[in-house]
Write a structure and sequence with these properties.
Length: about 170
């Protein structure tokens, strides 16, 4: 760990998901909530495909930035530090991909069903992130920032699949 140098602002800002990683009670959940909140404007676009593609763009950009910044964070805070929560933000975005269908709904943020499914997406993602079934835990074995990000990406994929199935069955 680097003790003699100050952790640069930008990688710290990204790694902590814009500061959410400093939340003292469940920083991982705070990182996921940041993902949900930052995604909300996409639900207002009126375009399902555009919302889906914009979400994919966010996932790609912040996965790359997350791997980079998490790798730097390990030099200052040790292996897989709890303050690094960009992985949770990205994982939440992945889980929310099926919610893109709400972009075609007039006033989606006024819809009770939107908020129900958004909450379900959060619960599903956090479940897979915390329990780490079906190879999720194995992703942590990857080196550096890649391992930090990979388990949450896989948890997000599992969450998205289950969310899509539930939405198909119950809507």
């Amino acid at each position: 760990m680097t003790e003699n140098h100050r952790f640069p602002f930008f990688p710290k800002f990204i790694a902590t998901s814009f500061g959410a990683g400093y939340w003292p009670w469940g920083p991982g959940t705070a990182g996921a909530v940041v993902g949900l909140v930052l995604w909300l404007p996409l639900a207002l676009t009126g375009h399902v495909t555009g919302t889906f593609l914009a979400t994919l763009g966010l996932i790609v950009v912040f996965t790359v930035l997350g791997i980079w910044s998490a790798g730097i964070a390990e030099n200052y805070w040790g292996p897989d530090p709890s303050r690094v929560v960009m992985d949770e933000t990205v994982g939440q975005w992945i889980t929310m991909l099926p919610l893109s269908v709400f972009a075609a709904t007039p006033r989606p943020l006024e819809s009770g069903s939107f908020w129900l499914w958004a909450f379900v997406s959060l619960v599903l993602f956090r479940f897979f992130d915390i329990v780490k079934p079906l190879g999720v835990r194995k992703m942590e074995d990857l080196p550096g920032g890649t391992g930090i990000m990979a388990d949450d990406i896989l948890a997000g994929i599992y969450g998205a699949v289950i969310l899509a199935l539930l939405m198909y069955m119950f809507t």
